[in-house]
Structure formats: C-alpha cells, structure tokens
Amino acid sequence: MEIKNKTIIITGAARIGENVAEQLLGAGANLVVAYRTNPPPIPESQKVLMVKAELTNLGQVADLIAQAKKKFGAIHGLVHMAATYERVPWSKLDLAAWDRSMNDIARSAFLVSKLVADEILKNTDSVKGKIILISDWSVLNQPYKDYLAYNSAKAAVVGLTKSLAAELAPAIMVNCIAPGPVLRPPDLSEEDNAEVMAKTPLQRWGGAEEITKGVKYLLDADFVTGQVLYIDGGRSNA
Length: 238
Hints:
Blueprint: E1 7-11, H1 16-26, E2 30-35, E3 48-52, H2 58-72, E4 77-80, H3 95-120, E5 129-134, H4 148-168, E6 172-179, H5 190-198, H6 208-220, E7 228-231
Parallel strand pairs: 1-2, 1-4, 2-3, 4-5, 5-6, 6-7
Helix pairs in contact: 1-6, 2-3, 3-4
C-alpha cells in the first residue's frame, strides 16, 4: 500500500512510537495520533491530528474514529503501539492486576482494530488497508517471571492478529511486530545490560529505527498477513 496521503491512526507514539510517527509523516502519510495522558512531541498540522482517547473505552474510540474521518475523510491504516508494562510478583498478582494488563493491551487492541477495520472496509481500493499490532518477542518463547498478566495479554495480541487476518482477508492485511531489545531502559544496570547482550546474538540494542523499518515494510507489503515479525536481534532464537 502506498502510504503517501493515506490516513494512518497511530497509538502509543512515544519513544519508539515517536520515531515511527515522524517517519510515516515524512513519507507523506496523514497521521491521527491517539494518546492517553500527555501528547507526544509531534506538532499538530494539516497532516497531523492529535486526539486524547482512552482506548479501552468504546465511546472514546468511536470519537477518535469520527475525528479522523472529519479531518481526513477516510482511514487506511492502524499502528497500535500503546501498552503498559507492569511488573507484578506472584505474591501480589490478583484479578485487578490481571484486568489492568488485559484491558490496556488486549482489550484496546481488539477495540481499536474492530472500529478501524469497519472504516477501512468502506474504502474502494483492492487493498483497502493495513493493521499492525505490537506484541513482544518473549511472551510465546521465554516469558519473563513476574509479568504473568503482561505476558498473557501480549500473547493474546498474537492470537488476535492471526484471527483478524483470517476475518479481514483479502481486503485488510493484519500483522504483528514482536520487538526484542530495542531501546535500553534508562534505569538498567550495567550488570543487567551485560546479561541482555550476552543473550542477544547481535549483541547490541536495535534502536527505534528498526521497529520503524518493520512498520514501513508491513504497510508497504501487499502479500503478507497474519504474521509475527520478530525484530529482536536474534533473541528469540538464542
């Protein structure tokens, strides 16, 4: 799909998402940037619409769609990156912790995908649009201890990706990116960093640009759907 002048909704446009948003904008896309609390540092313009929205709320997601249509007329893509990453040890794991991760990650992915897909299906092109979700390299291979709810929610995103791809073919292609060690957390100790690098075959942090390359590839490719693209420096294969 040629993304120039196409309208793409992006959620979670901070850190890695900011790089994705900037490069999609540079490629000529119209962007609808959804944020929960603080808007990312992306200037609003004729090509950028900023919308504050709680993505687990049906009414607010519907309003997001309505605002996107009012400004740009049609919707052609979704890059859903918004998520939470909550560590909850077993002793503190309860239904509230489970619900937080499942709502913020899995529920939001379903809700935004459903409403966006319903709009994309109205387009007249043979390839009507693209949906890209974000999982995590570890959740199906080596789930991290103390992240049971997060792991389960991100694993649900993989299942959602494959099911959406089956439901929406051939009109809409749906894929998922599973990042690995991309950006080093600012509070990561040297000891922990050395451990991450030892377990990563390419022995370096990938950088946000590698995720952006994956997003641009999946938006461009017209014969790929229902796939999980691991961008992890070989971590999942180690």
